[in-house]
Amino acid sequence: MFRPAPDSQLAGRICLVTGATSGVGRATALALARRGATLVIGARNPAKARATVAALRRQSGNTSIEALLADLSVQGEIHRLAREFRERYGRLDVLVNNAGARFLERRLSADGIEMTFALNHLGYFILTNLLLKELLTGAPGRVVNVASEAHRLCGGIDFEDLQGEREYQGKAAYAQSKLANLLFSYELARQLDGTGVAVNAVHPGNVLSGFSRNNGWLSWLRHLAGSLAAGELRLPGRAAQGPIYLASAPEAARVSGRYFVDAAEHQSSEASREGAAAKRLWEVSLRLTKLAKG
Ligand SMILES: NC(=O)c1ccc[n+]([C@@H]2O[C@H](COP(=O)([O-])OP(=O)(O)OC[C@H]3O[C@@H](n4cnc5c(N)ncnc54)[C@H](O)[C@@H]3O)[C@@H](O)[C@H]2O)c1
Fold first, then answer.
1. Is residue 107 a contact partner of residue 80, using CB atoms and an 8 Å limit?
2. How far is the CA of 77 from the centre of ligand 1 (A)?
3. Of 6, 172, 193, 242, which has the fewest beta carbons less than 10 angstroms from its beta carbon?
4. In ligand 1, which atom is closest to the CA atom of 24?
5. Is residue 78 in a domain?
6. Which residues are the active-site residues?
7. Over pLDDT 70: what percentage of the chain?
8. The domain containing residue 173 runs over which residues?
């Protein structure tokens, strides 16, 4: 069988992509593998992880691909993944935080934290902070946070009812978590200014993926119908263009603290650019994750 040789743009670079067994994450992982990266995928389900690694190796012709397992809504499992990564690789060049979901019913994570916030925001926050030393060791490096235009639906983080204890609406919780992705990206970019590690956020578009399948088939179909009605439903390969650009394009290495749709910079909402909210979210996130300051 003909296998195109992987191009060497990312040869020798170590890339970690979360949520890479489907959708945007899988398409991003495949593109990075084709560019010759040493690729680690974060995955929850061992059987899916094995199948995805085998498929990515076959499709890319790159054998330097493996999976590390973790449920990224569970803090202890993120710590374990980070530990295993550190022991095996010691350095990280590109981190793509992508694993995310929407929960129409309020649920708690294993740590007792509302699931949307635990997975979509704290998942990114903990993994990035735990691998910061490895990113700095690998500098110049990149952090790519997969966010969403849905952040515009949230006028600000509700610090008084952060986890929807008083009132929970799945769409609002999702929008808040995606606003948190932007606040986190901008604050981290500020903190890492001058280190050579670029941090950016990206909206992948409305995607034909597994997104919202956890809420049942009907909800998934509604999500797809809504995307079609809004005039856009992308295949994952198309949706991954933005993450791939930020993770690998040479010119993107010089850009940090920005929001992208595909390879184009966009202005995110006013609420996402509030420095005080970003700092407050950082403090709250430190408290909820018991990560030490600094
Ligand atoms: N689908 C869309 O229309 C859309 C639009 C804007 C932004 N996004 C964002 O894109 C990202 C990827 O979504 P997608 O559309 O590819 O959906 P998807 O459901 O196909 O992929 C999500 C990935 O995250 C993983 N994941 C979910 N919960 C996890 C957990 N607890 N632990 C570990 N992994 C977990 C899944 O296994 C899957 O691999 C998400 O951050 C999402 O918010 C999606």
1. no
2. 18
3. 193
4. 16
5. yes
6. 174
7. 97
8. 14-210+236-289
